[in-house]
């Protein structure tokens, strides 16, 4: 695997991304009823806002787009499967740009990339299938909210920890990739907080970890999106479009804010946001 050039990885990414764009364009063109159903109403603006806030967080922190966006969508009332499908479809575009940028800047460790990507794809496919076909959305919603709540607490605790110097270690990277992708597909987020934070905590270079994990995330989100499209379609393309619009607007702002806020401060803000919103979602689900 180490003999495979990153240029080929970038080429595959561009091919897959182009195929998804082509499919979405074809779907919209051949479904005029869906196109006519688009209304720039309050709901649409709420989705734009969710995408906007999530992208600002991700741009400043380098993770937590999915978990932040999914938490807000669940809080708004979007069903778990639709929320996860929408977030992952939008993420194909954001992670694609991010991954290609890291390849150009050579922020990637190829050995770590191939240890993550294959098990990550398998975990993403299994998780997406379960939330699409097996698990009942109404029943599983409070459990997903509880998972996001724990993830928020995890992020908050991480923000107060000092990372000690350790020898670089990615021995359990394949298992970590599977677990991160599996819960990411089911919960709509968690790949970054689970995979990135654990690899950095084990002493790996933050620069290479973020670049490698973000690039692998493109393939995770692409294949989970494929499963979602196959089983539940793209009826939620209104949500997807709103998330993309919000993310595009927020992208330069998030990159700008990173100059003024430390990563630990952002992690604390993200943790509090996720804990608060998830708690509210659980409360609504039980009453």
Q: Describe it for me?
A:
The model has no long low-confidence stretch (mean pLDDT 80). The chain is globular. It has helices spanning 6-29, 32-36, 42-61, 65-76, 80-104, 110-134, 137-159, 173-187, 191-201, 206-232, 237-257, 263-285. 80% of the residues lie in helices and 0% in strands. The relative contact order is 0.20. The protein has twelve helices and no strands. It has 287 residues and is mainly alpha-helical.
Quick rundown:
This protein is mainly alpha-helical.
Keywords:
287 residues; mainly alpha; 0% strand; globular
What assembly state would you assign to the polypeptide chains in this entry? single chain
Largest sheet: none
Mean pLDDT across every amino acid position: 80
The count of strands amounts to: 0
Please render the helix and strand layout as text.
Elements: H1 6-29, H2 32-36, H3 42-61, H4 65-76, H5 80-104, H6 110-134, H7 137-159, H8 173-187, H9 191-201, H10 206-232, H11 237-257, H12 263-285
């Amino acid at each position: 695997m180490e003999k495979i050039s990153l240029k080929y990885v970038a080429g595959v990414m561009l091919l897959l991304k182009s195929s998804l764009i082509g499919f979405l364009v074809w779907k919209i063109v051949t479904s005029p009823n869906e196109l006519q159903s688009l209304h720039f109403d309050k709901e649409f603006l709420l989705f734009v806002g969710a995408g906007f806030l999530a992208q600002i967080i991700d741009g400043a922190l380098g993770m937590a787009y999915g978990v932040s966006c999914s938490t807000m969508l669940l809080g708004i009332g979007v069903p778990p499967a639709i929320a996860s499908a929408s977030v992952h479809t939008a993420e194909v575009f954001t992670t694609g740009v991010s991954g290609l940028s890291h390849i150009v800047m050579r922020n990637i460790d190829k050995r770590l990339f191939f240890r993550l990507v294959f098990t990550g794809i398998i975990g993403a496919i299994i998780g997406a299938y379960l939330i699409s076909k097996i698990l009942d959305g109404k029943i599983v919603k409070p459990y997903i909210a509880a998972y996001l709540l724990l993830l928020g607490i995890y992020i908050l605790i991480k923000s107060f920890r000092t990372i000690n110097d350790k020898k670089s270690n990615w021995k359990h990277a394949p298992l970590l990739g599977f677990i991160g992708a599996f819960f990411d597909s089911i919960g709509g987020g968690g790949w970054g907080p689970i995979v990135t934070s654990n690899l950095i905590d084990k002493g790996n270079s933050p620069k290479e970890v973020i670049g490698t994990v973000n690039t692998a995330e493109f393939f995770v989100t692409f294949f989970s999106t494929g499963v979602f499209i196959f089983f539940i379609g793209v009826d939620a393309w209104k949500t997807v479009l709103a998330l993309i619009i919000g993310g595009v607007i927020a992208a330069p702002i998030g990159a700008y804010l990173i100059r003024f806020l430390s990563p630990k401060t952002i992690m604390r803000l993200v943790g509090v946001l996720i804990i608060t919103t998830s708690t509210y979602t659980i409360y609504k689900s039980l009453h």
